[in-house]
Design goal:
Layout lengths: L11 H18 L4 H8 L3 H8 L6 H10 L17 H7 L25
């Protein structure tokens, strides 16, 4: 069963529930008991039950379960790489890095602005 969720509009609790439910569905599709997965992940059975129910668990527990399910390669998709994209590297290759500068005004006499006109 797919849980389609608009992550950009969902509440934190809804996102947590959706992610936990997806892990639970993966566990069930692989026919692994909660007890066996909890043992493999190195977490308690009660933590595994909370995760299966979509309740809050620690990030450590979540990652341990993903590791036990051999899903760690999907963790990279959670956050984009902040590095420069390969297309941008090609565009800037060989170019000297420049800093942005403010627009310069023509030479004008500075004044306080309270002179008589």
């Amino acid at each position: 069963m797919m849980h389609n969720i608009n992550f950009s509009a969902a509440s934190t609790e809804a996102i947590i529930q959706a992610l936990c439910k997806r892990l639970e569905e993966i566990r069930l599709s692989r026919n692994i008991s909660q007890t066996d997965l909890a043992e493999e992940a190195g977490i308690s059975r009660s933590t595994m039950t909370r995760l299966a129910d979509g309740q809050k668990v620690s990030l450590d527990s979540f990652v341990r379960v993903m590791r036990a399910l051999q899903l760690t390669d999907h963790l990279a998709a959670l956050l984009p790489d902040p590095g420069v994209r390969p297309v941008e590297r090609l565009r800037f290759e060989g170019a000297e890095r420049r800093r942005a500068s403010r627009k310069r005004h023509e030479n004008s006499q500075w004044s306080w602005g309270d002179e008589e006109a």
